[in-house]
Design brief:
It is a single chain. The longest helix has 17 residues. Helix 3 links the parallel strand 1 and strand 2. Helix 3 runs antiparallel to helix 12 and helix 4 runs parallel beside helix 5. The radius of gyration is 19 Å and the shape is globular. A six-stranded mixed sheet has the order 2-1-3-10-4-11, sandwiched between helices. The chain is of the alpha/beta class. It contains twelve helices and eleven strands.
Length: 265
């Protein structure tokens, strides 16, 4: 067993022990699901995991991060039972590397890309071809998730390129580890503008949406889900079914996601 694999096994054991009450047996602890999910899903998935526990008595540990980091961790031996990506590319990568079970894969959610500013900002921007954010930035930076790897950053860069705005701002990007980190930079007033998902903007009262990117300026924002190849957890399939249930749909829609048909690829 490699060092990295031992590290991840130790991590999940630690998570499981932290979640389990003192009287829970080792067998019950091993039944706790470990889900790796895109950072933008936190509010909705926390709600869904709580509902799942209330209905079944079983706990779900969820690790949130950028999709690229999560699938790389799975590739290195992290014992996740399920992966929910914020884009198709990283799920495709997982499928090509045989890290997920293709028969369990489906497109779960859709989202939208928006431009945000601090709540008290007077900025108003029309997002259209020829967009120039220089004046609105006023010497500050544009907060985005990593534009080379993180889905929200990749979508944002694609949109700015399509609109002819990328060349004017590419040297003024404050790149964050994930989309929630990009959101925080704007919420704290550390950057005057940021590009995030509409659901992230809705979750943070310290920011406001000042523009919405047309859907034809970037690839469709789709969140696929699949059970990992290494999972032997008997509850993984049941939780996957629950993610497509009416209760989960309501939780996702409350956060502003578009629930897709769930058709697999």
């Amino acid at each position: 067993m490699g060092m990295m694999q031992r590290f991840w096994i130790g991590m999940v054991v630690g998570i499981t022990l932290a979640l389990a009450p003192p009287s829970t047996t080792a067998t019950a602890q091993n039944r706790n699901l470990l889900v790796f999910a895109a950072a933008s899903l936190k509010n909705a998935l926390d709600d869904i995991a709580s509902q799942w526990q209330g209905q079944t008595g079983k706990k779900v540990a969820v690790s949130y991060a950028a999709s690229n980091n999560l699938i790389r961790q799975i590739e290195e031996g992290a014992p996740a039972d399920m992966f929910i990506s914020a884009d198709i590319d990283w799920m495709d990568y997982g499928q090509q590397k045989k890290l997920v079970k293709p028969e369990t894969r489906s497109d779960l959610l859709g989202n939208r890309l928006v431009l945000i500013a601090p709540k008290d900002s007077p900025v108003s921007i029309s997002i259209q071809p020829g967009l120039d954010l220089s004046a609105a930035l006023k010497g500050g930076r544009l907060s985005m998730a990593n534009v080379d790897a993180v889905p929200a950053g990749k979508y944002g860069k694609a949109a700015l390129e399509k609109l002819g705005a990328w060349e004017r701002v590419k040297d003024r990007i404050a790149q964050a580890e994930n989309v929630r980190a990009a959101l925080v930079l704007v919420a704290r007033g550390e950057t005057p503008l940021g590009i995030v998902y509409e659901t992230d903007a809705a979750s943070e009262p310290a920011v406001k949406i000042v523009g919405k990117f047309p859907e034809d300026t970037h690839p469709a924002i789709i969140y696929p889900v699949a059970i990992t190849t290494g999972s032997t957890n008997p509850d993984a399939a049941s939780f996957l079914t629950f993610l497509h249930s009416p209760a989960a749909r309501q939780a996702f829609e409350r956060q502003g996601f578009t629930v897709l048909s769930g058709k697999g690829r």
